[in-house]
Design a protein that fits this description.
This protein has 159 residues and is an alpha+beta fold. It has a domain of 109 residues: Ribosomal Protein S8, Chain: A, domain 1. Helices cover 33% and strands 13% of the residues. It has five helices and four strands. The chain is elongated and about 80 Å long. About 4% of the residues have low confidence.
Length: 159
């Protein structure tokens, strides 16, 4: 097999490109590592445990009820309580947020404010770096443990 002979135009193009030091074609982007989320996506719990959680077969080691707390008080309480639960070696805890007032057409003063503030905010707080480091998974609780008004928080093992 004989070598192909380059034309003068091809040689000039090669030399110009080589001097510029830029790739002829853009390199494909490298696959990025997925970040673990506490509330969604891949969990730190194996399939059997996740199935038992979903079916409500595991009893929580501890529970906290955030009903009636202000948002700032609930945030401080949740952070301190989860840190203490993790330090005690608990694996599954139940965080009760409540469902909030149902949205309907009532004109009552308590219906004009946002509904279920803690239900919306607790998953966000669990995604904060300080709390996400403690949690392996967060899933909605089974109906016998509070259903839509509660969350299972599966804590990481102590190291």
């Amino acid at each position: 097999m004989s070598r192909r002979i380059l034309s003068d135009e091809e040689r000039k193009l090669f030399e110009q490109t080589f001097k510029e030091g830029r790739p002829i074609r853009a390199a494909p982007p490298k696959a990025s590592l997925k970040k673990k989320s506490a509330v969604s996506g891949t969990t730190g719990v194996n399939g059997a445990t996740n199935d038992r959680l979903r079916r409500g077969l595991i009893e929580p080691d501890a529970r906290i009820d955030l009903h009636g707390m202000t948002q700032s008080a609930a945030h401080r309480t949740l952070f301190a309580w989860l840190a203490a639960a993790h330090a005690r070696g608990f694996r599954l805890v139940l965080v009760i947020t409540g469902k909030g007032n149902p949205k309907n057409g009532d004109d009552a003063p308590w219906m004009t404010s946002s509904h279920g503030v803690l239900k919306q905010m607790v998953p966000r707080w669990l995604n904060e770096p300080e709390l996400a480091a403690l949690t392996a998974a967060v899933t909605p609780a089974h109906a016998k443990h509070g259903g839509g008004g509660a969350l299972y928080v599966y804590l990481r093992k102590m190291r």
